[in-house]
């Protein structure tokens, strides 16, 4: 299945967005195009390719990755920088602005909401229609349907993390989550589900995906059964189902071991040679009708030519505390300023912007080791927790001594390692929220941006105003 088939169709689908009055409850003109185009299993596969292109070019834009580290304590704007300034100051503004992607110049995350729900409706269309073509190739049809279920869960997981408080915010997760949309029909009434309901539906979707997806797949550019199981492990950990999380994560760690130094860790992360990758997105660049469409991954804004964001002093100290740790190379100091150098440049030859010519890894097995470590620690199986923790620690630094911490100190060691391993990959704020920890920026002197307590209304993004006023969705408190 080729990844870039029928880009013109995708652009036509994307081009209909500007006339929409709100994101969720207005006629979606793409339905006319997709129903006319998708006529068999082959065109369904091409339509699915278009969903992956939108994931690369819009949903996982630079701001999607930068935002969770910026509103927490891993990334900050350069001096005088204005991009994502309202997010960094926990002062997002509600408005009706509609964008195809989460833009670094925006004052909120409306573009993430819009892009996410467009992808979700496209996944729903595949789920609704694929069975009528199943006789053409049952295994392939199941694969396509499984991918659609998994992608629907993945996008909802990002949206509920961004626009809702964590699962543990209330005793039964009864607080407001996001709409969980399971239909391509725009005419159906939309409402915000509780966080508990969102998690239940994500788990259900991933269960369906795991049943449908083939047991073995070596192509990391499409969702596989292992990727679906990894996402399920992540969700179970966030839900507090530690037994399910450790079972899934430990199993995946066995089947897809973390990449070793001799296999190219960490230099081959974010490349097709990344042996621990479970799901990756390629950089997207293509032309249509004289225009150029390019995904803007996060490293574009970290590079020397587009230096808008830098690492915080706190995360620099963490990454460089031992020069023998190979992850110390993920930050670099030049002329007195630190920069983020985690992402490789020029991985894809001929790509128009070398700084973002890499593969954005969405799920990798190193996370499964730390999911297992955290879950085992929460279950008081500390020997197993230390085993999985040390596998990541001592992989990065062969001189590191085994951990002997227990109790709360062991959990703190796991939290520290998770911050180091996944720095600048778009996880930090979501981790702090599920741990119920405040944001504290040690290098900030301005008290208004130095500390964000837990809980705080400002820890999550506002619902787009158009869906509040037109679709009747309840706005998040404080906005």
Automatic annotation (TrEMBL):
Alphabetized UniProt keyword annotations: Cell outer membrane, Membrane, Signal
Subcellular location, principal: membrane
Cellular location(s): Cell outer membrane
SUPFAM superfamilies on file: TPR-like (SSF48452)
Domain of life: Bacteria
Gene3D superfamilies given in the database record: 1.25.40.390, 1.25.40.900, 2.20.20.130
Acetylation is among the record's keywords: no
Limits of the SusD-like N-terminal domain: 84-237
Identification of the protein by name: RagB/SusD family nutrient uptake outer membrane protein
């Amino acid at each position: 299945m080729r990844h870039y088939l029928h880009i013109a169709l995708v652009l036509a689908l994307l081009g209909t967005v500007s006339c929409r009055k709100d994101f969720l409850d207005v006629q979606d003109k793409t339905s006319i195009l997709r129903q006319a185009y998708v006529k068999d299993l082959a065109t369904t596969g091409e339509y699915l390719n278009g969903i992956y292109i939108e994931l690369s070019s819009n949903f996982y834009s630079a701001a999607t990755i930068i935002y969770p580290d910026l509103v927490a304590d891993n990334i900050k704007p350069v001096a005088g920088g204005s991009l994502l300034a309202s997010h960094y100051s926990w002062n997002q503004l509600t408005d009706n602005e509609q964008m195809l992607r989460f833009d670094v110049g925006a004052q909120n995350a409306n573009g993430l909401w819009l892009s996410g729900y467009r992808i979700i409706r496209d996944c729903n269309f595949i789920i609704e229609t694929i069975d009528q073509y199943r006789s053409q190739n049952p295994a392939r049809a199941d694969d396509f349907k499984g991918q659609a279920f998994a992608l629907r869960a993945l996008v909802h997981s990002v949206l509920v993390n961004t626009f809702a408080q964590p699962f543990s915010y209330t005793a039964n997760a009864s607080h407001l989550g996001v709409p969980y949309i399971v239909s391509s029909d725009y005419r159906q009434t939309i409402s915000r589900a509780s966080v508990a309901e969102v998690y239940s539906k994500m788990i259900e979707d991933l269960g369906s995906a795991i049943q449908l997806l083939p047991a073995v797949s070596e192509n990391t550019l499409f969702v596989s059964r292992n990727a679906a199981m990894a996402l399920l492990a992540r969700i179970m950990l966030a839900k507090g189902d530690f037994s399910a999380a450790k079972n899934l994560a430990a199993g995946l760690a066995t089947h897809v071991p973390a990449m070793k130094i001799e296999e190219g860790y960490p230099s081959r992360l974010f490349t097709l040679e990344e042996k621990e990758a479970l799901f990756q997105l390629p950089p997207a660049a293509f032309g249509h009708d004289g225009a150029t469409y390019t995904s803007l991954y996060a490293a574009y804004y970290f590079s020397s030519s587009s230096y808008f964001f830098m690492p915080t002093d706190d995360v620099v100290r963490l990454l460089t505390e031992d020069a023998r740790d190979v992850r110390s190379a993920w930050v670099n100091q030049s002329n007195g300023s630190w920069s983020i150098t985690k992402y490789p440049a020029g991985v894809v030859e001929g790509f128009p912007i070398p700084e973002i010519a890499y593969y954005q890894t969405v799920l990798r097995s190193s996370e499964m080791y730390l999911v297992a470590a955290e879950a085992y620690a929460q279950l008081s199986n500390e020997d197993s927790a230390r085993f999985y923790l040390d596998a990541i620690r001592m992989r990065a630094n062969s001189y590191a001594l085994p951990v002997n911490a227990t109790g709360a100190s062991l959990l703190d060691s796991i939290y520290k390692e998770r911050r180091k391993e996944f720095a600048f990959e778009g996880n930090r704020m979501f981790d702090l929220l599920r741990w119920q920890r405040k944001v504290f920026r040690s290098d900030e002197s301005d008290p208004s941006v130095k500390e964000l307590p837990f809980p705080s209304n400002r820890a999550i993004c506002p619902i787009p105003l158009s869906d509040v006023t037109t679709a009747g969705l309840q706005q998040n408190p404080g906005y």
